[in-house]
Design a protein that fits this description.
Aminopeptidase, 8-stranded mixed sheet
């Protein structure tokens, strides 16, 4: 994956107090597992894999080491408050498309941090030359859907009974998509250049 020119770590203001954004390294597995323990089983459905499982986190760290995945962590001291991840497959026919994953621990929701993390990973997508982004979540995660829609994502598909939780219940999933070039032009038009520089 192409390297970024954005500078990290970087301190950002958040409604819940200052937060540091930094890139995840392959040594962050323990922090990710500790973070996953703060999430409910339903929150974990937001992600394609169960990050509370050490095997899954190990694969994530391997992909980070190899540069196939880029993750921005939101940290307060040693505590991980959330993360935004950009996944793409440079060998596929969809190498121009990135998948976006954003998740926060419960106490950090509703203060704007999710939107800030999403904007940060959008800026990385612009730098990496991606043309389209997708995000997926269960349809009842209305707060997350609202954040993404506020940044220009639009529903593109609804998959019925796509996810099965630990109790065997199925959930519908919505796939949202975003035209990155259009986003960049809109941000520049509104004078919000720090999101794309």
């Amino acid at each position: 994956m192409t390297s970024s020119t954005r500078s990290y770590p970087r301190r950002v203001a958040s409604g819940g107090g200052p937060v540091e954004f930094r890139l995840m390294t392959a040594n962050d597995g323990d922090a990710v597992l500790a973070f996953a323990r703060t999430l409910s089983a339903h929150d974990l459905l937001f992600l394609p894999r169960d990050i509370s499982q050490p095997k899954v986190v190990g694969a994530w760290m391997d992909a980070t080491r190899d540069g196939r995945i880029v993750t921005v962590l939101a940290m307060r001291g040693d505590a991980m408050l959330g993360c935004a991840t950009l996944v793409r497959d440079e060998l596929s026919w969809s190498r121009h498309v990135g998948e976006l994953r954003v998740i926060l621990e419960p106490a950090s929701r509703g203060v704007g941090l999710g939107g800030q993390l999403t904007q940060e990973i959008l800026a990385l997508a612009v730098e990496l030359g991606l043309e389209k982004l997708t995000a997926q979540m269960t349809v009842d995660q209305r707060g997350a859907i609202g954040v993404f829609e506020g940044l220009g994502f639009r529903a593109e598909a609804l998959l019925h009974d796509q996810v099965k939780d630990r109790d065997g219940r199925t959930h519908d999933m919505v796939i949202l998509s975003h035209d990155v070039a259009k986003f960049q032009a809109q941000m520049a038009a509104y004078g919000v250049t720090q999101a794309v520089e």
